[in-house]
Write a structure and sequence with these properties.
138 residues, alpha+beta, Pdz3 Domain, 2 domains, 7-stranded antiparallel sheet, two-stranded antiparallel sheet, 33% strand
Length: 138
């Protein structure tokens, strides 16, 4: 799917009387997420993959990053950020950074699920994580 030619100059409609078409809407939520540094001021310090049932699964952790400092582990599932769900719903990807980009104090509450190794059952907790300022480059 290609972005509509006016995608970057077309403002998000604010009223029901002037809605956008599906191409614009899908482009915003499915294709418009690649350059997250354009929008986010903070970073979690984790690489994630998104799925229908698992929210955002932590695939990598940045040493010294906010996620590692908060005790998150590779394989943990971030299901919500400040009460907003993350993951794949229909044909839209609701991403972690899109939720915490609105943080006022760099701290967000996550709903994290993990498999308890002793029981094999899912366990849930709500850590408050202090994000770090976004760094660019290597």
């Amino acid at each position: 799917m290609m972005l509509p030619p006016d995608f970057f100059i077309e403002l998000k409609p604010k009223a029901r009387t002037s809605p956008e078409d599906r191409t614009h809407n899908v482009a915003r939520y499915v294709l418009g997420y690649g350059n997250f540094s354009k929008y986010a001021k903070y970073e979690l310090g984790a690489g994630v993959t998104y799925s229908y049932g698992g929210g955002a699964t932590i695939a990598t952790l940045k040493p010294g990053g906010a996620a590692a400092a908060a005790g998150l582990k590779v394989g943990d599932h971030i299901l919500e950020v400040d009460g907003a769900p993350v993951g794949v719903f229909g044909d839209r990807v609701y991403e972690v950074w899109r939720q915490y980009v609105h943080s006022k104090d760099e701290e967000v509450e996550f709903l994290v699920a993990f498999d308890d190794p002793s029981t094999g059952q899912a366990r849930y907790y709500y850590p408050k994580i202090k994000l770090t300022k976004l760094t660019t480059g290597g």
